[in-house]
Design goal:
This protein is α/β, with parallel strands linked by helices and about 350 residues long. The protein folds into 2 domains: about 140 residues, 3-Layer(aba) Sandwich (Rossmann fold), CATH 3.40.50; about 170 residues, Rossmann fold, CATH 3.40.50.2000. The protein contains 12 helices and 11 strands. α7 links the parallel β6 and β7. α3 crosses α4. About 40% of the residues are buried. The mean pLDDT is about 95.
Length: about 350
């Protein structure tokens, strides 16, 4: 079986934000190569990210069901092979699961390229002692390097809008474009080191609401939704709850209509970036230097405290060696509020 050079299979599983970061690269490489098709193999929940991209197919991997374990991965390998034929494999994840998958494809003679995560550089950036605080290659460029390794050269354009959704009227009456300024607030993250204290963010939302801005609250779990619901009960009609009330596809449509998003170093930063929405991103234990800033976002919009210990983690999942999470707890609500307001004014010009 000859290799089809006009088709690439991409592996990227795990967190939504990491999957979202593949979208600009895949979209731009499809634009660079009009005869190319990309098949993304990822978690089923991520499919709406790719639905609007021409010549981008999607295969959902059910790791809790039919694709669980070694034999499940072999089943997934066979399904991919049946749907795509012999095509180059781009591993944008490089974990045990993709290593097992690649071994099946390698035995069948497939061309394979794997992401270099730059672990040693990131270890130095986040070390407690002898830290070297300098910008590393972005995750988007690391993804692009995989395509280049497979023989598809090209340059990323950070200023290019990534995806466009077909407009629907489901949010008619919920979000308005025009005189109102629509601000998204995504105040949570998976790890404490990436999460601005909710009571401080509540102050920010109150100030913005009092200024007459329309606020849309994004979150995930039941506990987060409960907190956000309590904010709304206190603040009135200027604040609306998105979390828990819409499908993921509908949330994307709402995000695409925002003027500004305020997010942690988390998925909503990357989702807003797909629509070229300016993002005020808040960084604590992590830092944009590690390469995870939203696509096309300016570091000027990244809010952080310049502490000697920061950054101490790539993903925000390490305990604070100081014990007080000063990187987040010492950041005043006024700093965040001012950054959002300045971004709004900048967009009006």
């Amino acid at each position: 079986m000859d290799t089809d050079r006009n088709h690439i299979v991409v592996f990227r599983f795990s967190a939504l934000g990491d999957i979202a970061m593949t979208v600009p690269v895949i979209k731009q490489w499809l634009d660079l190569y009009p005869k190319l098709t990309v098949t993304v193999v990822s978690n089923p929940f991520a499919q709406p990210l790719f639905d609007s991209i021409v010549r981008c197919n999607f295969i959902g991997a059910d790791f809790k069901g039919k694709h669980a374990g070694f034999f499940g991965l072999f089943r997934l390998y066979k399904e991919i092979k049946e749907q795509t034929g012999k095509v180059p494999i781009a591993d944008l994840h490089n974990v045990l699961r993709t290593t097992v998958l690649k071994s099946f494809f390698r035995l069948s003679g497939f061309s394979i390229a794997t992401i270099d995560k730059g672990r040693n550089e990131k270890r130095i950036l986040t070390s407690r002692h002898n830290k070297i605080k300098s910008p590393l290659k972005s995750q988007h460029e690391r993804y692009a390097d995989v395509f280049r390794s497979l023989g598809y050269p090209g340059e990323l354009n950070p200023s290019a809008q990534t995806i466009t959704l077909q407009p629907t009227d489901f949010h008619s009456g919920f979000i308005h474009r025009g005189d109102k300024v629509n601000i998204g607030i995504a105040p949570f993250a998976k790890h404490q080191g990436k999460c601005y204290p909710p009571d401080k963010m509540k102050e920010v939302v109150q100030k913005l609401s009092q200024d007459g801005y329309q606020i849309f609250l994004f979150g995930g779990g039941k506990a987060e939704i409960k907190i956000l619901s309590s904010w709304i009960s206190e603040m009135g009609d200027h604040v609306k709850l998105v979390a828990g009330n819409f499908s993921f596809k509908e949330e994307l449509e709402i995000i695409s209509q925002l003027d500004v998003m305020c997010s942690m170093d988390s998925a909503n930063m990357h989702l807003a970036s797909l629509f070229s929405i300016p993002v005020i991103s808040i960084w604590g234990a992590t830092h944009p230097f590690a390469g995870f800033l939203g696509f096309g976002q300016s570091e000027e919009l990244a809010v952080s405290l310049d502490l000697p210990c920061s950054p101490c983690s790539v993903f925000g999942n390490k305990p604070c060696w100081r014990g007080d999470f000063a990187c987040m707890n010492q950041m005043s609500p006024q700093v965040v509020y001012s950054a959002i307001c300045q971004s709004v004014l900048r967009n009006k010009k």
